[in-house]
């Protein structure tokens, strides 16, 4: 592609991205190592002076005590910027019995999902809010201990949508690279980024009501988002079978488009839109696009290679 063609591709995107408005707000590096000064037009948050009151849900199955809420008073200077830093301070300095999941601390693994001030969030990327704070485990999940919930049902539903490439010739999987065009790859944006944190599923009222029974099993927004991701993948050849597998009055159609899932997703994904597109595909109002690159069966591909060598 020549230079003029590249410019024409970039121009429409520039109009959608307010660069000038952002440049005034973004900090400018003072040196080549990335040190920056605080922007002049951004108000600094004044640090809290009074002790911070944090209320945490507590439950220990090995004790006879019912679940309860425990309050901690913390000096704001002792905690970090994120909620996970606050929980680490409580566990290391105040109460070592406090239990919670965590791993990457970068918003990638989804382990530290919990309900913070009434909203499902990842503790590692959620800034500590000012004032009082209350932390619960993810709602409508069986609690193992404190902020740790049982994810067995959630992962079972994820497994049910077959989250892997399916080809007509299953024996060819893993033996060669399946090609995909840039356009087909871009169709997967908004689906593959899901980290299975369950923030969306546990914020969905339909999932609360119908997500825990095998007879009335609504798969939930996370599993259905992944189902859509594999169905539209140009390398997958079993999209019809996948659609029929979720064509059930409970598995798919219990979604009432409440859109709590899109609001709660820490990766800014939209499972509600994916579910709506699945319904359209089942009613044949939307069809899967023909792949830009055809990946022939393994035997045909090898025959073409041999012919090319000759």
TrEMBL record:
The keyword Metal-binding applies. Its cofactor is [4Fe-4S] cluster; [3Fe-4S] cluster; [2Fe-2S] cluster. It is an enzyme of class 1 (oxidoreductase). Belongs to the succinate dehydrogenase/fumarate reductase iron-sulfur protein family. It is a peripheral membrane protein. It comes from Rhodnius prolixus (Triatomid bug). GO terms for biological process: respiratory electron transport chain; tricarboxylic acid cycle. This is Succinate dehydrogenase [ubiquinone] iron-sulfur subunit, mitochondrial. Binds 1 [4Fe-4S] cluster. GO terms for cellular component: mitochondrial inner membrane. Keywords: 2Fe-2S, 3Fe-4S, 4Fe-4S, Electron transport, Iron, Iron-sulfur, Membrane, Metal-binding, Mitochondrion, Mitochondrion inner membrane, Oxidoreductase, Transport, Tricarboxylic acid cycle.
């Amino acid at each position: 592609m020549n230079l003029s063609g590249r410019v024409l591709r970039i121009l429409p995107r520039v109009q959608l991205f307010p660069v000038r408005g952002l440049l005034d707000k973004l900090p400018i590096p003072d040196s080549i190592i990335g040190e920056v000064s605080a922007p002049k037009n951004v108000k600094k948050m004044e640090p809290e002076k009074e002790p911070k009151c944090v209320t945490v849900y507590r439950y220990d199955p090995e004790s006879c005590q019912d679940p309860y809420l425990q309050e901690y008073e913390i000096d704001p200077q002792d905690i970090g910027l994120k909620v996970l830093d606050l929980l680490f301070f409580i566990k290391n300095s105040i109460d070592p019995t406090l239990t919670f999941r965590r791993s990457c601390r970068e918003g990638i693994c989804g382990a530290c999902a919990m309900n913070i001030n009434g909203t499902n969030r990842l503790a590692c990327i959620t800034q500590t809010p000012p004032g009082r704070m209350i932390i619960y485990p993810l709602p409508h999940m069986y609690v193992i201990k404190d902020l740790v919930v049982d994810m067995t049902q959630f992962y079972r539903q994820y497994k049910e949508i077959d989250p892997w490439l399916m080809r007509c010739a299953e024996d060819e999987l893993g033996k060669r690279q399946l090609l995909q065009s840039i356009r087909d790859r871009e169709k997967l944006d908004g689906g593959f980024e899901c980290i299975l944190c369950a923030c969306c599923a546990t914020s969905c009222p339909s999932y609360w009501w119908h997500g825990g029974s095998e007879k009335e099993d609504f798969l939930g927004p996370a599993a259905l988002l992944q189902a859509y991701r594999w169905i539209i993948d140009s390398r997958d050849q079993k999209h019809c079978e996948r659609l029929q597998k979720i064509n059930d009055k409970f598995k798919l159609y219990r979604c009432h488009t409440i859109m709590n899932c899109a609001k709660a997703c820490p990766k800014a994904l939209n499972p509600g839109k994916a579910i709506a597109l699945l319904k359209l595909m089942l009613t044949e109002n939307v069809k899967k696009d023909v792949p830009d690159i055809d990946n022939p069966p393994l035997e045909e591909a090898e025959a073409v290679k041999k012919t090319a060598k000759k």
